[in-house]
Write a structure and sequence with these properties.
CATH architecture of the largest domain: 3-Layer(aba) Sandwich
Shape: elongated
Helix content: 25-40%
CATH class of the largest domain: Alpha Beta
CATH topology of the largest domain: D-Maltodextrin-Binding Protein, domain 2
């Protein structure tokens, strides 16, 4: 994680400061960075880490504002409607900038026309994490348990989120039966998972690791094709006998990994000056 943070900060500060023309006066006032989730989740932590270093380099406050709801689309919509001057940024997410446009035909913003991508900040697979009270030590037992009278509940950061779709994909691939419990962000979801209010979650490793070390939750599998160096003893879903439920980076389909990128309204002069490109 330290290496990841270092790479993020070096890239961002270089993008904002290294290529600006000499006459540029940006920024000359505070910058807002919108996060579409409640505080405490991985996206929120990323935003606060990045904003702190940007503030040091740019010499202006970079204020993180949480605008949770509707799988991060509320925050995205607010940024889409903001003045395109580079002072309102979005810590974008696969929920608001990839999944939502595919699910909701009447989305109040156009993800292609209304935003200019600046830089990809992070990419991560998900893990299948269960509360310690769940009597399942592996994925096979978890599937069997879901079909029993006990049943299972799984949390997500919101209806239509990548966590929600990962759970639905898991059920389609395995025949498991689980009840979805949506939250306004992974920060809330992980709290209830630890407390035993829900049985399991499909979440990013950074959200899960602190609680894994405390023994309050267990990780049964990871959704990437390969094992994670951070969790080398955790099998992939494929290794656990589940095919067709991979969630990984680089995909444009629903079985893609969680991706974060900083976005701003179209016409963001500072990003343009930095030579950002839409890929």
């Amino acid at each position: 994680m330290r290496a990841l943070h270092l790479a993020i900060l070096v890239s961002l500060t270089a993008a904002f400061t290294g290529s600006l023309p000499a006459h540029a006066q940006y920024p000359n006032k505070p910058i807002r960075m919108i996060v579409g989730f409640v505080p405490g989740g991985f996206t929120d932590v990323l935003a606060r880490t990045v904003s702190q270093k940007l503030q040091e380099r740019l010499g202006q406050p970079v204020v993180v504002e949480n605008k949770p709801g509707a799988a991060a689309t509320i925050g995205a919509d607010q940024v889409a409607k903001a003045k395109p001057d580079g002072y309102t940024l979005l810590m974008g997410h696969i929920n608001s900038n990839a999944i939502a446009p595919a699910l909701y035909p009447k989305l109040p913003y156009d993800v292609i026309k209304d935003f200019t991508p600046i830089i990809q900040v992070a990419s991560t697979p998900l893990v299948v994490a269960v509360n310690d009270s769940v009597p399942a030590q592996d994925v096979k037992t978890l599937i069997e348990l879901s079909k029993s009278k006990r049943g299972l509940t799984f949390a997500s950061s919101g209806s239509g989120s990548v966590q929600h779709l990962a759970g639905e994909l898991f059920m389609l691939a395995t025949g498991a039966k689980m009840t979805h419990v949506p939250y306004k962000g992974s920060g809330q979801a992980i709290v209830d998972l630890v407390a035993g209010q829900v049985d399991l979650n499909f979440d990013s490793p950074p959200n899960v690791l602190p609680h894994l070390r405390s023994g309050k939750i267990r990780v049964l599998a990871i959704t990437s094709r390969e094992r994670s160096p951070t969790l080398p003893d955790v099998p992939t879903l494929e290794e656990a006998g589940v095919s067709g439920a991979e969630v990984r980076g680089g995909s444009v389909c629903l079985n893609s990994s969680v991706r974060w990128a900083k976005w701003s309204p179209a016409g963001f002069q500072a990003a343009a000056a930095c030579g950002s490109r839409v890929k």
